[in-house]
Amino acid sequence: MSTAKSKYSFHQSVDYYFDKAAPITKHPQGLLDQIKVPNAVYQMRFPVKIGNDYQVIEAFRVQHSQHRLPTKGGIRYSIHVDQDEVTALAALMTYKCAIVDVPFGGAKGGIKISPRNYSTSQLQRITRRYTAELVKKNFIGPGIDVPAPDYGTGEREMAWILDTYLTLSKGDIDAYGCVTGKPVNQHGINGRKEATGLGVYYGIREAMDNAEDMKQLGLSTGVEGKRVVIQGLGNVGYYSAKFFQEAGAIIVGLGEYEGAIHNPKGLDIEQVLKHRKETGSILDFPGAKNIKPTEKVLELACDILIPAAIESVIHEGNAGQIKAKIVGEAANGPVTPEANEIMRERGIMVIPDMYLNAGGVTVSYFEWLKNLSHIRFGRMQKRFDQSASEGMIKMMEKLTNKQVPAEEIAKLARGADEIDLVRSGLEETMVGSYQQIREIWRKNKKVEDLRTAAFVNAINKVAMDYLALGIFP
Ligand code: GLU
Questions:
Q1: How many CB atoms lie within 10 A of CB 424?
Q2: Counting beta carbons within 10 angstroms of the beta carbon of residue 398, is it exposed (0 to 12), middle (13 to 18) or buried (19 or more)?
Q3: Average pLDDT in the 215-240 region?
């Protein structure tokens, strides 16, 4: 979506950050140009029967970079979808995958509809037709381009995409890897649904573990007891709130499109969602104050602000009013370039989208690996690990002549399930990738902030691939 809130369109804003970081990497201009440009843009229009008439649906798939295959990225359903937005999001996917060492190129898709205006069966028809269009043009496949959920889509849509692809794929043994974010009982993976939110939590927790950085912000280390505001209660916002709450943070503000609520003593995320289900709105939640317009939630007093909905919500007009010390970009592109500079000058730490919300694609990668290997993670080694640990404990008991209580043995000797492995892989990824970016930020005076560091890291990794391909001598 091009926005009146910035002089840059969304795609231009991604390029703006790229251009800031590119000279720091010192790669030849031609190579930098090749990394920056979108490689393939597919705009389509197709008819779908809605009621007694046909409607022409406009949709896109952009493959930004094929330096690694498949390309990867979600599909969004929103009335604001346009080529600029999908291209910006595809570019972010390239950099995102590089930052978290997911061996894919970047892509994104979008269908220009307001899902609320369609019935389930109409949405199914639109999704299946979109998938068929992608198949026709060879724009989908486990080794070509692999969609996933994004704003306005979820497991249900991924299941429809899988089924349509399977119908058309004529016995390809790896066909289940054509899309990720599928329901667990339809070749999905445990832990994908909450992965982006959990990654947001791991990423902010890692940043907040650094005493030196927190001192600069005037904060103590750790997330426990910190005040958090979250804008957007979709999949990413909800799970981010849940994991922060579980870690002892206080959710003081929540925003949705109908309005926002504030309670400095804390809001229980599950209760808020229950209230929304019952009344159709988060407003009038017991003990909380209503806030209108909903954007005002961004300006509440807090330590951590998490925009988790759409792009450009923090702009020139409100960046000066942000009270948070840390802004964690759970959404893609929630901060305009103007706001980015204002907040940096004000000493606010912005943890950039292309790192912070990469948990989703990280677990998508695990799901794709599971689909290609045709086996659930943990199936081969769970029992073996369990009996090896039990054997060790028994041996220790024998040597020390002491007994370990049965419930302790059950905990200590447990073999890992798929969910344990997925979460540990995700945690390792978010922690390791943060440290890479922080080091680039702290070691180079020209690198002004974490976002520039993330771009430098991404550009270097993609450039390395192109150099290895021998295209650029
Ligand atoms: N749509 C998500 C994103 O923006 C996930 C992409 C994926 O899993 O491929 O990162």
A1: 11
A2: exposed
A3: 97
Q: What phi and psi, each to the nearest 5 degrees, are found at residue 137?
A: -100, 10
CA separation for the pair 276, 285 (Å, rounded): 9
Residue corresponding to tokens 């229980």:
268
Quick one: CA torsion of 164, 170, 176, 179, rounded to 10 degrees? -50
**Candidates 108, 193, 226, 382; catalytic one:** 108
**How many CB atoms lie under 10 A from the CB of residue 186?**
12
pTM of the model: 0.96
Q: Under 8 Å CB-to-CB from 381, ≥6 apart: which residues?
A: 415, 416
Q: In this structure, are residues 296 and 317 in contact, taking their beta carbons and an 8 Å threshold?
A: no
Please compute the mean of the pLDDT values over residues 222-231 and round it to a whole number: 98
Burial of 135 (0-12, 13-18, 19+ CB in 10 A): middle
Residues framing ligand 1 (Cβ under 6 A) = 72-74, 96, 148, 150, 180-181, 332, 357, 360-361, 364
Domains of the chain: 13-188+446-469 (3.40.50.10860)
Q: Which amino acid is present at 275? A: H
**How far, in Å, from the CA of 74 to the mean position of ligand 1?**
5
Mutate-to-test residue for ligand 1 from 92, 150, 236, highest number of ligand atoms within 8 A of CB: 150
Residues 11-15: what's their mean pLDDT? 97
How do residues 428-453 score in pLDDT, each as one tens digit? 999 999 999 999 999 999 999 999 99
Q: Return the axis-axis angle of helices 29-36 and 450-469, rounded to nearest 10°.
A: 110
Distance of CA 463 to CAs 45, 73, 440, 467, Å? 35, 20, 17, 6
Specify the 3-state DSSP secondary structure of 146: strand
Catalytic residue list contains 446? no
Q: Which tokens in the block code for residue 133?
A: 């269009």
Q: Look up residue 314 and give its two tokens.
A: 């923090």
pLDDT for 244-276, tens place per residue? 999 999 999 999 999 999 999 999 999 999 999
Nearest residue to 229 (alpha-carbon basis) of 308, 318, 287: 308
Q: Three-class SS of residue 215?
A: helix
Q: How far, in Å, CA of 130 to CA of 160, rounded?
A: 10
Measured between alpha carbons, how far is 271 from 452 in angstroms, rounded to an integer? 39
Rounded Cα distance between 6 and 63, Å, is 25
Distance separating alpha carbons of residues 428 and 426, to the nearest angstrom: 5
Q: Is the pLDDT of residue 469 over 90?
A: no
